[in-house]
Amino acid sequence: MSKFYVTTPIYYINGLPSVGHAYSTIIADALARYHRMKGEEVRFLTGTDENSQKNVEAAERAGMKDDIQGYLDQMAARWQEAFDELGFTHDRFIRTTEADHAQAVEKFWKAVEKTGDIYLGEYVGLYCKGCEAFYGEADLVDGKCPLHKTVPEAIKEKNYFFRLTKYRDALLEHIGKHPDFVVPASRRNEIVSYIRDFMTDISISRASMKWGIPVPGDEKQRIYVWFDALINYLTGAGYGSDDAACAKWWPADLHIVGKDIIKFHCALWPAMLMSAGLPLPTRVLAHGFFTVNGEKMSKSLGNVIDPVQIARDYGNDVLRYFLMREIRLGEDGDFSLDRLAQRYDGELANELGNLAHRVLTMTEKYFDGTVPKRTDGFLAGAWDGYHLAMEELRVHDALEVVWKLVRESNQLIEERAPWKLAKLKEEKMLADTMYVLLETLRHISWMLVPIMPDTADRLLEKLGLAPAKEFSQAVEVAWRWGELAPGAKIEKGEPLFPRREGSQAAEARGNS
Ligand code: ME8
């Protein structure tokens, strides 16, 4: 049986999850669900990056400077609650302050040391705490960090260094040979130019910090947070604690990251793995960043959107749908509550919700709520297009395939006008039309399983079927045309997407 090991970045917990953090995790969740649906063994890892100076400062601000771990415990618990409420299906929520992670980091450090890739050197650099990274003068804008607009601190100390430049050629060769290593292609060019022209050895310990994992053999130094954080992907596979699990899950099949952290994932991380003698992850998907109503989402602008609140207002599936539909995976985009409301009214309530409602109502009316006799279908190519899009990490295109079916079905209703067929007693044509519509709805449900899991199960229930995960045969059977059994009872129930009070669609309906 093939396996799929997918990860998200581990998040800093100096604040609560924003819709940006939810975005990476939603994509990972959708892909995890897709591979589970296919019957593969899946491991989905997410969690929190806790050995960061940022978290320490947040603890100090919260009046918990003497109990940093207590602060982290509280925050990690709040992140876990949020992720549970959002319905994420991660197999592990990893925290880098956990014991098995410290163990993995120690083992990894020693492996890299043994290769001769760690040396002691003097570090003089400009450190941005916001980024947890050093900058060269040339990287700064008006002497400030380009991301955080703060003046970085000048730091001079004896540090351990990692011989990153030793891996320059090997990294370029790997990326050249595996065009899929960095997706999408636009990011690949960016990373190649960084590796070729800018990459230097990096300092991987701090003498000045008190929080973090101690350097093995030199307890006065703490391991640089990024060196420790990246190793979480190995810890989550079992490295350092469970060799059999690690052999099964490593290498990861997919790391999902935002475009802000690709240097770490596509240069530093693979070089670290090469040095430790471990295989590299198969793919790194760098998704884009989104703004909020055209502006960067930031605490100082006070425009950080809380994903849990949106999910409470609209439902988890609506948040998932919006993020995966509005933003082409890999590109930048904008998050706007107006756009979300528009898509809800137009695509979810009107197109999908209405389709289900009309088809089920007509089945009740003309066939006493039972599925009519089978007929041939018209799904040609839809599943192929859907699978290809999911495999190539174009979730937006997979949704496009689904919406094409939704629109074609609505169009079929208009063209065939079942109410006219009923009047004219065109029984065969009426039965064929209704079977095609019901069976297409069943296929739509299955395509939505990874993307809008609650909606998929509700729709299956309306069609008189069990939830997707209770399907007892090979899933390919569910994807075949004609599996909806004639004579089965449907269950219209409540609308999938109730009209919102005050929405234009609701007003239009009220006026008609
Ligand atoms: O970088 N649009 O953690 P972090 C899209 N701890 N994605 C966004 C976003 C936005 N506006 N804002 C945040 C770190 N993200 C490190 C990672 S991994 C070994 C260590 C997402 O809390 C995106 O995935 O700053 C980005 O890469 C991540 O949150 C950064 O989270």
TrEMBL record:
Its main location: cytoplasm. It is an enzyme of class 6 (ligase). Residues 386-504 form the Methionyl-tRNA synthetase anticodon-binding domain. The keyword Transport does not apply. Residues 492-512 are annotated as: Disordered. A motif ('KMSKS' region) lies at residues 296-300. It catalyses: tRNA(Met) + L-methionine + ATP = L-methionyl-tRNA(Met) + AMP + diphosphate. SUPFAM superfamilies: Anticodon-binding domain of a subclass of class I aminoacyl-tRNA synthetases, Nucleotidylyl transferase. Its cofactor is Zn(2+). GO terms for cellular component: cytoplasm. GO terms for biological process: methionyl-tRNA aminoacylation. Zn(2+) binds at residues 128, 131, 145, 148. InterPro entries: Anticodon_Met, Met-tRNA_synth_2, Methionyl/Leucyl_tRNA_Synth, MetRS_core, Rossmann-like_a/b/a_fold, tRNAsynth_Ia_anticodon-bd. Residues 139-360 form the Methionyl/Leucyl tRNA synthetase domain. Its EC number is 6.1.1.10. CDD domains: Anticodon_Ia_Met, MetRS_core. Keywords: Aminoacyl-tRNA synthetase, ATP-binding, Cytoplasm, Ligase, Metal-binding, Nucleotide-binding, Protein biosynthesis, Zinc. Residues 492-502 have a biased composition (Basic and acidic residues). Monomer. Is required not only for elongation of protein synthesis but also for the initiation of all mRNA translation through initiator tRNA(fMet) aminoacylation. Belongs to the class-I aminoacyl-tRNA synthetase family. MetG type 2A subfamily. This is Methionine--tRNA ligase.
